[in-house]
Design goal:
The strands form two sheets. Strands 6-7-8-3-9-10 form a six-stranded mixed β-sheet, sandwiched between helices. It has helices at about 15-30, 35-65, 75-125, 130-135, 140-180, 185-230, 230-235, 240-295, 300-340, 400-410, 430-435, 450-455, 465-475, 480-485, 500-515, 530-545, 560, 580-585, 590-600; strands spanning about 360-370, 380-385, 390-395, 415-420, 425, 440, 520-525, 550-555, 565-570, 575-580. By secondary structure, the chain is of the alpha/beta class. Helix content is about 65%, strand content about 10%. It has four domains: about 15-180 and about 325-345, ABC transporter type 1, transmembrane domain (ABC transporter transmembrane region fold); about 180-295; about 355-435 and about 520-605, P-loop containing nucleotide triphosphate hydrolases (Rossmann fold, 3-Layer(aba) Sandwich); about 445-515, P-loop containing nucleotide triphosphate hydrolases (Rossmann fold, 3-Layer(aba) Sandwich), CATH 3.40.50.300. It is elongated, with a radius of gyration of 36 Å. The protein binds adenosine-5'-diphosphate and magnesium ion. Magnesium ion (MG) binds near residues 401, 402 and 443.
């Protein structure tokens, strides 16, 4: 154990763990389950006292009573013996009833606590805004949610049952020693302190390796997952051997931390049992010598021994409990950090009624950067868009087009300046009210694992079949849907059909077409479509754009050319603003981009 590897995992945040414990504790004692939890704890106390203290005590009385007797017994004496025997049975039954209470009330409350805990986590996750989801791994969020429930259940068992009964056993042994032999108190206390000190010290050593182990275990999984997803790249570049080496290296470190963890377990185990044997033999010898002097009855000798056996079992359990508690805290930690985190975007305290009707958009002096220390995407952006105007947003990638749209949808707030729609600041109304008035097709739309119908009707769940059929037709999905076994009711995703990028986009377009909103925003909405279907869909959009303020971001400038107005962005600044023909005459950035595409240099010259 002398050369342990350097620790891989970050240090334990004790303050965080304390807050998490308090959170869990308060959670399980919410009014809804308060009495259930109280009954569980009381039953746990009663079970321990009845089984581990009072039954052995009756046993002691029985032994003391029968030791001097010589059978055969007279009927009255036998009656007394039988009475003592019944008392033992009585306490066993009481303990049994208390145990039944524990299991049934745990059954009534714990599952509910976990359910509410998970619901609360999901509700909290929903409050986070766009940037949170953009920076989180979806898979890890799902795993974290599952871990929180597990962690809670483990903690509940360890704290409200195991630790509670340990405390009672310690008190019982203390009282018994004090009652039967006060001078033994001091050595007993010293021994107990020594035991707890030694085990805590050793557990701390072990814990570090346990934490390393669980971290490296995730790393092994992640390394493997990364190789599997990049399988094609690995093959193409012939790098199988290097990938295997990477895997072996992490796997080796995982194995080492596992070995160290087990090694320390062995040390802890040996220490615990050695200390237990020492105390038991010592107390037995001490009690026997008191018996020899005539100051202790044989029943008390047996009673003390029984208590000690129970106590030492409980102390061994204590080591396990501490381990489980630490592990559970570590497992729930990540999700709890999120629970404590304040979402960056809030609805206003007193939201105004939304007045969005015509769709006039004003960006006033907007300054925005994703993170405070990042470079600004917009330093001073002013844009006015008239009601019903159809605007194309053009610019090199990274110029801020998508950011503009995200600000309009209030996925983020600008650092200064503000955004108005129809003269009303968008941060003065509820986010849901704002977004209800905007139809949006994002750059990379995602679909629910639900039927195509549900996916299309997501923004208008009450839409009738006629309306759905119409947008299906306008987004050129009819042919594809007719081929499906269950048509519109076919499930999208794993067990249903897999859609290509272009088909997904068309479903997203149909979804936006169905939603009746005065503002329409298309962010590269047609980028995954082939040129022919794009032209068709553009025609359908022409209808949709009528009477709506429209913002179109598109790579193929042919789709932009016929809009009312074109704004050219470069590094967050408006460099050109005008109609297609005005900008062509200007012979600036737009003109050169347009001519390049027209000449077929970017490959879409066949569009017009
Ligand atoms: N979630 C994000 N976090 C940090 N920076 C981002 C994020 N999204 C975009 N950016 C940065 O903001 C700038 C503008 O990006 P974006 O609006 O997506 O450009 P466009 O849509 O015009 O290609 C880029 O420099 C990009 O790297
Ligand atoms: Mg973009």
């Amino acid at each position: 154990m002398s050369t342990s590897p350097s620790s891989d995992s970050p240090p334990i945040d004790k303050a965080l763990h304390r807050r998490l414990l308090i959170y869990f504790f308060k959670f399980q004692f919410r009014p809804k389950y308060f009495w259930f939890r109280v009954i569980v704890m009381l039953s746990s106390i009663i079970a321990t006292i009845a089984w581990d203290v009072l039954a052995p005590y009756q046993f002691k009385k029985l032994i003391d009573y029968i030791t001097p007797l010589t059978p055969p017994l007279e009927a009255t004496i036998w009656n007394d013996v039988f009475h003592l025997f019944l008392m033992i049975v009585f306490f066993y039954v009481i303990g049994l009833i208390a145990r039944v209470c524990i299991t049934s009330f745990v059954c009534l409350s714990s599952a509910l606590v976990v359910r509410d805990l998970e619901n609360e986590c999901v509700e909290k996750l929903q409050k986070f805004s766009y940037d949170f989801y953009a920076n989180s791994f979806v898979g890890s969020l799902v795993a974290q949610l599952r871990r929180v429930g597990d962690a809670y259940l483990n903690l509940e068992v360890e704290i409200t049952e195991n630790l509670l009964s340990l405390v009672i056993k310690v008190i019982a042994v203390g009282v018994a020693i004090y009652a039967f032999s006060p001078p033994a108190m001091l050595p007993a206390i010293i021994w107990a302190l020594f035991f707890i000190g030694a085990i805590s010290f050793l557990l701390k050593k072990k814990m570090r390796h346990d934490r390393d182990y669980s971290m490296l275990e995730s790393k092994v999984t992640a390394t493997l997952a990364d190789s599997v997803t990049n399988f094609l790249t690995i093959k193409v570049f012939g790098r199988e051997k290097d990938e295997l080496e990477r895997f072996k290296e992490v796997n080796h470190r995982k194995t080492r931390s596992m070995q160290y963890g087990w090694g320390w377990s062995a040390v802890i185990f040996t220490t615990q049992y050695s200390l237990n044997i020492i105390i038991q033999t010592f107390v037995l010898f001490y009690a026997l010598s008191l018996w020899a002097e005539g100051t202790m009855t044989i029943g008390t000798v047996v009673f003390l021994q029984m208590l000690l056996v129970k106590l030492s079992d409980a102390l061994v359990e204590f080591g396990n409990s501490v381990k489980v508690i630490y592990r559970s805290l570590a497992r729930a930690e990540e999700m709890y950090v999120l629970l404590e985190q304040e979402p960056t975007l809030h609805d206003p305290k007193r939201p105004q009624k939304p007045k969005i009707s015509k769709g006039k958009i004003d960006f006033k002096n907007v300054r925005f950067s994703y993170n405070d220390d990042d470079q600004e995407v917009f330093s001073e952006l002013d844009i006015q868009i008239k009601p019903g105007e159809r605007v194309g947003l053009v610019g090199p990638s990274g110029s801020g087009k998508s950011t503009f749209v995200k600000l309009l949808l209030r996925f983020m707030d600008p650092q200064s300046g503000h955004i108005e729609i129809d003269g009303q600041r968008i941060d003065k109304i509820r986010q849901a009210d704002l977004r209800r008035h905007i139809s949006f097709v994002p750059q990379e739309p995602t679909l629910f694992h639900r039927s195509i119908w549900d996916n299309i009707a997501y923004g208008e769940p009450d839409a009738d079949e006629k309306a759905i059929r119409k947008v299906v037709k306008n987004s050129y999905l009819t042919e594809m849907i007719d081929k499906l076994p269950e048509g519109l009711n076919t499930l999208v995703g794993e067990r249903g059909i897999k859609l290509s990028g272009g088909e997904k986009q068309r479903v997203a377009i149909a979804r936006a077409m169905l939603k009746k909103a005065p503002i329409l925003v298309l962010d590269e909405a047609t980028s995954s479509l082939d040129s022919t279907s794009e032209i068709y869909i553009q025609n359908a959009f022409q209808n949709l754009m009528k009477g709506r303020t429209t913002i179109v971001i598109a790579h193929r400038l042919s789709t932009i050319a016929r809009l009312d107005r074109i704004i050219v962005l470069k590094e967050g600044h408006i460099v050109e603003d005008g109609t297609h023909s005005q900008l062509l005459k200007k012979k600036g950035l737009y003109a050169s981009l347009y001519n390049n595409q027209k000449d077929g240099m970017i490959g879409d010259g066949e569009d017009e």
